[in-house]
Amino acid sequence: MTNPLYDTLFGRYAGKTTPFLHLPDGSAITHNDFLSMAARYAHVFRDAGVEPGDRLAVQIEKSPQALAIYAACVQSGIVFLPLNTAYTAAEVSYFVENSGAKLLICDTANETALTPIAQSAGAQLETLDADGVGTLSAQAETMPNRFPTVTRSPDDLAAFLYTSGTTGRSKGAMLSQQNLLSNAETLVDYWKFTDQDVLLHALPIFHTHGLFVASNITLLAGGSMIFMGKFNPDQIIENMPRATSMMGVPTFYTRLLDDTRFTKALTQHMRLFISGSAPLLADTHIQFESRTGHRILERYGMTETNMNTSNPYDGERRAGTVGMPLPGVELKITDSASGETLPDGEVGQIEVRGPNVFQGYWQMPEKTAEELRGDGFFITGDLGVVDPDGYVQIVGRNKDLIISGGYNIYPKEIELVLDEQPGVLESAVVGVSHPDFGETVVGFLVASNEVGPDLDAISRNVGESLARFKHPKKLIVLPKLPRNTMGKVQKNLLREQFGDLFS
Ligand code: ATP
Ligand code: MG
């Protein structure tokens, strides 16, 4: 094989007029059309002097063209670097400088703001809008439909994906061809994807979930995707009868459950609903099953590793767990201080090893050395426990662990109690500094109705179910929890904003 990732995901479709992307307007893009588009982009990149191994950054709206840029990069050996569309110009500046990108592709609306940024970083700038129009497509029009695929080896880098920045500054995870390919192969098999699958795709494609998990799997299995710009319940409901599968973040599922049009009949043709990127509440899992008869399959992964664990396809999908390590992935729970492996049933840091684990953080050798052990195990930064049946449960992030008066407190345990309280829609528990205890517990609540929660009653209830050192010293009602675009609660923002409550 000249280029394992390209040949396996894309090249095999040369000349095939099977549908690949179904668009909301009813039109479809065939595999061959998609490949031609990618080849034309690859010519533009090469003519612009972007060489194999160079980085190409994109901050554009989701579109078939945006996905074809990924294919073009793989075909021409360029390292693909997609950026969150929510990032401001100042943030994009960091990523372009940090990655040393040779070319930045942005939306026309951001061209003025990003021109000086690209210039100072020494990157060229092209534009591409959500409708596929821009300076990139204008140049691509005159290019040939075929591009000689650049030879790559499995260890060559395919992408830099920056982490979501939930716990701090985003880090550029270097992913090789083999990292991506091995995970896609495992998941197609594990989740039984075939060429008969039609995946509802409403996730962003700047993140591992929508880009690699969803798109790579569909390409490898030979299926097609109903490709939507963003999550829109109307569009999802309209298209579900044509689909077989969906991948979503937990908010997709809670929003569908809030919609009375989302019925069992609507899901009749579906074989699989997958959730990940953030914890799915057990309650959502249960409600979803009682509404539709489907059990959501929850899995666990991250930018640095793609997917690590998954609930089984055929066996029991256990609510509140992320299932077992995928074939080929080793997982252990270790003591944060000593690094020693802990026995099953004890909470510790989750470490994983496998062909899916990334090559390190770009230009962060110290950070890489801290988190990626010499023996290949990656310290994920998540805390978890393995139950007697081998199901992994995530109890939170290491950075969110609260140490109060010498006791370890796992926010999740308190959140589960708070979520059950009358008038509470959801909660987030964080540790803030405290003169006596070092840190203490603060609970943030979002009301589920106009009346809102009765904070005194909640304090009493919590007192009955949790040990004293775990009781929130303060409960605060917020209109909503701060979340990033992947739906993850940004506890660092809560800590920043409320950090001096007790000082
Ligand atoms: P950063 O590393 O920059 O702080 P991030 O870790 O949120 O950001 P991602 O790589 O997008 O960036 O997210 C991976 C994290 O998402 C995991 O480490 C884990 O905390 C969380 N996660 C993913 N899937 C699940 C899941 N099913 N249940 C609970 N948490 C999940
Ligand atoms: Mg992370």
Task: Kindly describe this structure.
The protein is of the alpha/beta class and 503 residues long. Helices cover 30% and strands 24% of the residues. It contains 15 helices and 24 strands. The longest helix is centred in the N-terminal third of the chain and has 17 residues. The radius of gyration is 23 Å and the shape is globular. The protein binds adenosine-5'-triphosphate and magnesium ion.
Structure characteristics:
15 helices; 30% helix; 4-stranded parallel beta sheet; alpha/beta; 9-stranded mixed beta sheet; binds magnesium ion; 503 residues; binds adenosine-5'-triphosphate
List the helices and strands and how they pair.
Elements: H1 4-9, E1 19-22, E2 28-30, H2 31-47, E3 55-59, H3 64-76, E4 79-82, H4 89-99, E5 103-106, H5 111-121, E6 124-127, H6 135-140, E7 157-162, E8 172-176, H7 177-190, E9 198-201, H8 208-221, E10 224-227, H9 233-239, E11 245-248, H10 250-257, E12 272-275, H11 282-292, E13 297-302, E14 306-310, E15 324-325, E16 330-334, E17 348-353, H12 365-371, E18 378-386, E19 392-397, E20 402-404, E21 407-409, H13 411-419, E22 424-434, E23 438-447, H14 455-465, E24 474-477, H15 491-498
Parallel strand pairs: 1-10, 3-4, 3-5, 5-6, 9-10, 9-11, 11-12, 12-13, 23-24
Antiparallel strand pairs: 1-2, 7-8, 13-14, 14-15, 16-17, 17-18, 18-19, 20-21, 22-23
Helix pairs in contact: 2-3, 4-5, 7-8, 10-11
The structure holds adenosine-5'-triphosphate and magnesium ion.
